[in-house]
Design brief:
alpha/beta, binds nicotinamide-adenine-dinucleotide, 7-stranded parallel beta sheet, globular, 21 strands
């Protein structure tokens, strides 16, 4: 049989039309594997079904057992996850990422933080308990991607919820790997499938579908203020964990050697990717030289003003007089900044410091880079004024090095941050070398603070009237 090219073209066209018609009649299910779905609608529905089972068929002991298994498997894979995150995002430092993983694995509270209130009196017994919201939509950042997944998973499922994640596109592979790992662990330990889910390719469209879905009862957004504001505008109940720009004050009573050690550790940790890391220092004039010397002794490299201008020229983008970070340089090693301005041979340098005025973009903009500006102030009051202004009303994190308790109180009241550390690196404020639990979702804007399982629950009251069950 002889068929010419024209006829072949017609046949192919007809076949394609038929395929399209068929697929419209019977849309191909996009399915999911180990919690990772091709389309978000199915992820939401699967998490909804899982949540109904999670509250009906499983008890608190099950939650404890499954969370313990999640901790074990995450700890076994902490180094691998840290390496994957470093490789995929190209940001931060491997050894610090291992520490961040271990902190969330070991110090994110489980069901133990779900406290019940009880009132017993002549008119009966009242209890108020922490009940699940249902399915939570969680948006996660590129700066702590898998750390936030582990942290949010423990907190949210401890509260009886299930989660649909929309992860940062720049960290989607390590996040999918981490989610699959946790998902498999949940199922192997007898838990329901799809307790945690995500769309394989995250997108803004998926975020919109998550916020619009009636199945989603709560949003939890961890990232920049653009995202937090978008979630708040969506009309869905939102726990928002947004940006910070943490200032540090060093006054003339501080132990300067100790302050330098702590500031160096905090500001260089994971190349300053943590939202709560020290971003600018306000030091009283009399201590400035000593602090700069002590920071150099710790290993910091002091840039002169010309070198700092050269760094600013490539690490910041000037948009008509207002500065934004050049994302290419977020979380990069300090030595790479030096190489870019022609200074070689400083591979081990973890932090660059420079004296600037308080209006410098590195002071005013949240830069997430291992470059720490230092501003001299004539008085303590000036330190406070400039620190409050640089913090920009985020009310996220701040710190002070001082032995004067009155000054600590004054600054604490003025700055109103969710985390306030005294005489220690700010990372101690999330339990890395400090007391208290760890979280990667610090909800300043919406007020939940350092989130834990309790933050992702709603209060429900049960009233047993006329002395029922009371024994006195
Ligand atoms: P980012 O805002 O670029 O992205 C965060 C997430 O939001 C991603 O999943 C992204 O896809 C999504 N997103 C971005 N714009 C959005 C919009 N308009 N609507 C809906 N979703 C949107 O942040 P990043 O660069 O990944 O992370 C760094 C930022 O996050 C910094 O500002 C840092 O301070 C902040 N952060 C805050 C906390 C906290 O606990 N408060 C923790 C980690 C990071």
């Amino acid at each position: 049989m002889n068929i010419d090219a024209k006829e072949i073209e017609l046949i192919v066209q007809q076949v394609l039309e038929n395929i399209n018609a068929e697929s419209l009649k019977f849309p191909r299910p996009c399915g999911g594997e180990d919690g990772v779905f091709e389309c978000v609608e199915e992820a939401i529905e699967a998490s909804y079904q899982a949540q109904r089972r999670w509250v009906k068929e499983y008890n608190l002991e099950d939650r404890k057992r499954i969370i313990a298994a999640i901790r074990t498997v995450s700890e076994e894979h902490a180094k691998e996850l840290a390496k994957m995150v470093r490789d995929e995002t190209g940001m931060g430092r491997y050894e610090d990422k291992v520490q961040k993983h271990l902190a969330v694995i070991r110090k994110t509270p489980g069901v133990e933080c779900l406290v019940t209130d009880a009132v017993s009196g002549d008119e009966g017994l009242m209890i108020e308990e922490c009940a699940p919201f249902g399915v939570i939509g969680a948006i996660t950042p590129s700066t702590n991607p898998t750390e936030t997944i582990i942290n949010n998973t423990i907190s949210m499922i401890a509260g009886g919820n299930t989660v649909v994640f929309n992860v940062h596109p720049g960290a989607k592979e390590c996040c999918a790997y981490c989610l699959r790992l946790l998902h498999k662990t949940i199922v192997e330990n007898g838990g329901p499938a799809n307790l945690i889910t995500m769309q394989r390719n995250p997108s803004m469209e998926a975020v919109n579908k998550i916020t619009a879905s009636p199945r989603i009862r709560l949003m939890a957004g961890t990232g920049g203020m653009g995202m937090v504001d978008a979630l708040l505008r969506s009309g869905k109940k939102t726990i928002g964990a947004g940006a910070g720009n943490p200032p540090v004050i060093v006054d003339d009573t501080a132990d300067i050697a100790h302050a330098a050690k702590e500031i160096y550790r905090g500001a260089s940790f994971d190349n300053n990717l943590l939202c709560l890391a020290e971003k600018e220092v306000f030091v009283m004039e009399s201590e400035a030289e000593q602090l700069i010397d002590a920071l150099q002794k710790e290993g910091a490299f002091l840039l002169d003003s010309r070198q700092m201008e050269a760094v600013t020229a490539f690490a910041m983008v000037n948009k008509g007089g207002s500065f934004q970070v050049n994302k290419k340089w977020v979380g990069k090693d300090a030595s790479l900044f030096l190489e870019e301005i022609g200074i070689h041979g400083h591979k081990d340098t973890r932090l660059l410091i420079c004296e600037t005025d308080s209006g410098h973009p590195f002071v005013q903009v949240e830069q997430l880079m291992p470059v720490l500006p230092i501003v001299r102030c004539r008085t303590f009051e000036e330190c406070v004024d400039l620190a409050v202004s640089a913090e920009g009303g985020n009310r996220h994190t701040s710190s002070i090095f001082s032995k004067n308790v009155d000054r600590m109180t004054v600054f604490g009241k003025e700055i109103e941050t969710t985390i306030y550390t005294k005489n220690g690196a700010t990372l101690r404020g999330i339990g890395i070398g400090g007391e208290g639990h760890t979280t990667m979702t610090i909800a300043g804007p919406t007020g939940e603070g350092l989130t834990c399982a309790r933050s992702f629950t709603r209060r429900r009251r049960c009233m047993l009237s006329e002395g029922g069950l009371r024994i006195i």
